[in-house]
Amino acid sequence: MKRLYKSRADRKIFGVCGGIAEYFNIDPTIVRIIWAVCVLFFGTGILAYFIVAFILPDSPPDGYTEPIQVDAEESDDRQ
User: Fold this and answer.
1) What is the CA radius of gyration of the chain?
2) In total, how many domains does the chain have?
3) Residue 32 has what pLDDT?
């Protein structure tokens, strides 16, 4: 399952725009431009950025793999 993280590689302030760009597989500059438009015209971009920066975890280090979860039903069947 794909997860949303703050970017470690493409980080300008906290890595939020870079992380969103990695998640949607688009250029981070596009995300930053959209964020700047939201700040200038709607005034909500700064507050939203800092909320997301606080909530999102940093991306795991390169080479890290998520542990495999085994359902209880599957483990009972194996015994």
Assistant:
1) 17
2) 1
3) 87
Domain that holds residue 22: 1-58
Q: What pTM did the predictor assign?
A: 0.64
**CB-based burial of residue 38 (10 Å sphere; 0-12 exposed, 13-18 middle, 19+ buried)?**
middle
* pLDDT < 70: residue spans in the chain: 60-79
pLDDT at 12: 77
> Does the residue 64 lie in any domain?
no
Do the domain assignments include residue 33?
Answer: yes
